[in-house]
Amino acid sequence: MTESEKRSQQEAAATRLGIRVEGDRAVFDAQSLLKSLGGWVGIIESAVPPTAFLVIYSIWQNTVWAVTVSAVLALASITKQLLQRKPVSQAIVGAVLTALSAWLALKTPGGAKDYYIPGFITNLAYGSVMLLSVLVRWPIIGLVVGFFKGWGVAWRKNRSLLTRFDLITGMWAGLFGLRLAIELPLFFANNIAALGVAKLILGTPTYALCIWFTWLASRSVILAKP
User: Fold this and answer.
1) Cβ partners under 8 Å of residue 104, min gap 6
2) Mind listing the pLDDT tens digit for each residue in 12-28?
3) pLDDT tens digits for range 101-127
4) Cα–Cα dist 218/216, whole Å
């Protein structure tokens, strides 16, 4: 691995951890946390389509209009990402999820509530991967911190670090599980308004909170000198 590739991996890991590097220091503050969430623009762009769907459907009960407006807004955001030359994979995933949400809402018997099914799938996938990584003792948060610190996977030999990263990764698995535990009953109860509100509350705010807890729990490790 070249030095530039290593530095690129470390920067990506830092962003995922909600931190930034200043010289030889790792810094966690409102600015670094905001960057990890995609900045204000990224937060707004991610919240606008589902909010538009929720508002339009709640007021007019029109699935076609709700889906159309939210899909157009989502695709506009995806197009902007491509024009800004952001990772193509991220844009492709966004486009696929947008198309799937629209198709489910318009073509399945469940109607408008099926718009939210892709979100359940992604939460289940992320939560399962996080939980599996803990069960096999390769916690994902440990891998991210290891890349950032340049340790590779050597940290796994330290039982204390392994346990710490198991717990932090378990917290992330718990976040995705919490979303499903709250949202699925609303889905099966056909309470679309409450489901939409729950998704917004359990989205960026809880994600940011988990990043903050991750920093608190791993700060001593991240700031440790080589």
Assistant:
1) 110, 114, 115, 117, 118
2) 888 889 998 887 788 89
3) 999 999 988 889 999 999 999 999 999
4) 6
Section 78-87 average pLDDT: 79
CA distance 181 to 177: 6
DSSP category for residue 87: -
Q: How far is CA 81 from CA 5, 38, 41, 46, 143, in A?
A: 23, 11, 11, 12, 27
Q: Is 189 exposed, middle or buried (0-12, 13-18, 19+ CB in 10 A)?
A: exposed
- pTM greater than 0.85 (yes/no): yes
Judged by DSSP in three states, 135 sits in helix
Chain centre distance of CA 187: 21
Q: Residue 147: how many CA atoms within 13 Å on its side-chain side?
A: 19
Q: Which of 15, 35, 36 is nearest to 26 (CA)?
A: 15
Q: Which residues have CB under 8 Å from 175's CB, separation 6+?
A: 127, 206, 207, 210
Identify the CA nearest to 168 among candidates 222, 124, 213: 213
Residue showing tokens 């995922």: 16
